[in-house]
Design brief:
CATH architecture of the largest domain: Sandwich
CATH topology of the largest domain: HSP40/DNAj peptide-binding domain
Order of helices and strands: HHHHHEHEEEEEEEEEEHEEEEHH
Number of domains: 4
Distance between the termini: 123 Å
Number of strands: 15
Radius of gyration: 43 Å
Structural class: alpha+beta
Strand order of the largest sheet: 10-11-15-14
CATH class of the largest domain: Mainly Beta
Shape: elongated
Number of helices: 9
CATH superfamily of the largest domain: Urease metallochaperone UreE, N-terminal domain
Length: 380
């Protein structure tokens, strides 16, 4: 009695080739001996192999549709038997369907001349250099074009020779007879590493790479207003690619050194300035250091601790903002004297009386805490 190969694969009788592949892949994940080593699974997988082989062949499938069995005795043999194919490994089946070399069709040789990578250089700047910009000399250590072979990698102007192993294809193919028919897998040629050609006489300066490492001096222009962490791109100044390929870019990364006086927040600067209590009360005129030099500012009488003076346009230039600049904020630290002599104390008492301010007597040596200390020490 003929087997129902459609039922074995679990597909309809009008299943397409793609439907057959999907069904076979699903069952292979469940019953392949590499996945399920039980004897029952192995027998089941033999039937699955047979069903897929039959239904994938238009002529054998026609026999099935007419009620026959092409694998019956005298019908041409089944999987593993005369004319059949041995089991493929589970990974081979997955590769045959979904990659890992493909079923024929190569990618061709990979080029020797390939683009180079980018390079990054750290550059430290002072706050003033970052604020106003500058031109800075830099030294870079990158791969450059080999001047002896001009990037070919071959000595004396000789050209690479076609690889005898792959015939210039860059890959070798392996043909395996399976239940799917002939599966062709392609791998990079081991003789030429996938290039399709071999440099038999490499350049003695670059060793066949087409590039050499060297130290170069360049000049980078720092625009006004750059900040810590920003990168300036120098196109084509990075690493030259293998085989003399086009160079990548060089990125100069800005690192701003801390300043002794100013702290930066974007385009604004901040600083602290100590101010005597009397100056805050009476008002005064101060000379403040800025990035542009010294500037005089007025402190109004009665200025309170924590007050801030704003000097417009004394901050950092806005990057690509023309003449626009941030501001400088001067935070006033009003200082109360900690030590005063008798005359200063008398004057402050007079001031308090004139302002009708209540004076709390300071704690002297015979105060509450002094008495407590004496009690613990056994005095008194």
């Amino acid at each position: 009695m003929a087997k129902d190969y459609y039922q074995i694969l679990g597909v309809q009788r009008d299943a397409t080739p793609d439907d057959l592949k999907k069904a076979y892949r699903k069952l292979a994940r469940e019953f392949h001996p590499d996945v399920n080593p039980s004897p029952e699974a192995q027998e089941k997988f033999k039937d699955i192999n047979a069903a897929f082989e039959v239904l994938s062949d238009p002529q054998k499938r026609q026999i099935v549709d007419m009620g026959g069995d092409p694998l019956a005795p005298g019908g041409g043999g089944g999987p593993g038997g005369p004319g059949g194919a041995p089991f493929m490994g589970f990974q081979d089946i997955m590769d045959a369907f979904f990659g890992g070399g493909g079923m024929g069709g190569g990618r061709g040789p990979r080029p020797r001349r390939r683009p180079g990578s980018d390079a990054v250089l750290r550059l430290e700047l002072t706050l003033k250099e970052a604020a106003f910009g500058m031109e800075s000399p830099i030294t870079v250590d990158t791969a450059v074009l080999c001047t002896q072979c001009e990037g070919s990698g071959a000595a004396d102007g000789a050209a690479p020779e076609t690889c005898d192993t792959c015939g210039g294809a860059g890959e070798v193919q392996n043909v395996q007879r399976t239940i799917l028919g002939q599966v062709v897998t392609a791998r990079p040629c081991p003789s030429c590493s996938g290039y399709g050609s071999i440099i038999t006489n490499p350049c003695n300066k670059c060793g066949g790479d087409g590039r050499v490492r060297t130290r170069r001096k360049l000049t980078v222009k720092i625009p006004p207003g750059v900040e810590d962490g920003m990168r300036i791109r120098l196109g084509g100044q990075g690493e030259v690619g293998p085989g003399g390929g086009p160079a990548g870019d060089l990125y100069v990364e800005i690192h701003e050194k801390p300043h002794d006086v100013f702290t930066r927040e974007g385009e604004d600067l901040h600083c602290k300035l100590k101010l005597p209590m009397t100056a805050a009360a009476l008002g005064t005129r101060l000379t403040v250091d800025t990035l542009d030099g010294q500037e005089t500012v007025d402190v109004h009488a009665g200025t309170q601790p924590g007050s801030t003076l704003r000097i417009r346009g004394a901050g950092i230039p806005v990057l690509r903002g023309g003449d626009t600049r941030g501001d400088l904020y001067v935070h006033l630290d009003v200082r109360t004297p900690t030590k005063i002599d008798a005359e200063q104390e008398r004057v402050l008492h007079q001031l308090a009386e004139l302002r009708s301010e209540e004076i709390v007597e300071p704690v002297r040596g015979n105060g509450f805490f002094s008495r407590m200390r004496d009690a613990f020490n056994g005095h008194g």
